[in-house]
Amino acid sequence: MKNNFSQRHIEWNYPKPGNSWDKFVGPGATKGEQALMLLPTLVLTAGLLIWVPIQGIQWSIWQYLVAGFLAFDLIGGVITNATSTAKRWYHRAGQSRGKHLQFVAVHILQLFLVTWLFNDLNWVYLFSIYAYLMLSSWWVLRLPLYLQRPAAFGIYTLTLMLHYSFLSGMEGFGAIPGLEWFVPVFFFKLLISHLLTEEPYRPVSRF
After folding, report:
1. Does the UniProt entry include the keyword Transmembrane (predicted)?
2. Which residues span the domain enclosing 176?
């Protein structure tokens, strides 16, 4: 198949943010990007919550609420941070390595919620995953730009292997019933979708 180079319009300039939503997802998001941010996120979040009782897992109302919040934020974060609009916003001039690490660091709140409500306050689980995430993020950002993508992909592959194979039999470290998706999506949002710099392609049509 012949590559269509006419579709490869890259634009790093962005309009002035008009509101809080613009500052969150990036100013200038197209209708197509916004549809992708919201519709799959809503469907997948609902599907995950519906799947929990089907598996026979019994959660409290708080666990359902927190799981819904986590699924919506993380799934939405994977998609949103991968859009060209978000890439040119979060990787604009002036966005230092420290700011990217701050973005990753604040997600300890989500890891704490999972540890508190779903994993019996296993502090070793919380701090080992958090330390691994922060060290991985720091190392990827320290690399030359052309090495960051393969390095992040390699770390993510290792993360999946640790989560589903090497550590799956260890008490308190295996996949949490009903939240088997949490660690893979958590790392994908932060390590892959957010951290990696990519060219912000812009549409050649209004959509």
Report:
1. yes
2. 20-202
Number of domains present in the structure of the chain = 1
Residues 37 and 80 sit within 8 Å (Cβ to Cβ): yes
User: CA–CA separation, 135 vs 158, rounded Å?
Assistant: 14
Does the pTM of the predicted model rise above 0.70? Answer: yes
pLDDT score recorded for residue 166: 85
Quote the pLDDT of residue 168.
81
Tell me, yes or no, whether 8 lies in a domain: no
How many Å from the N-terminal Cα to the C-terminal Cα in the chain?
24
What lies within 8 Å, CB to CB, of 16 at 6+ separation is 27
Across 82-120, b (16+ Cβ under 10 Å) vs e yields: bbbbbbbbbbeeeeeeeebeebbeebbebbebbbebbbe
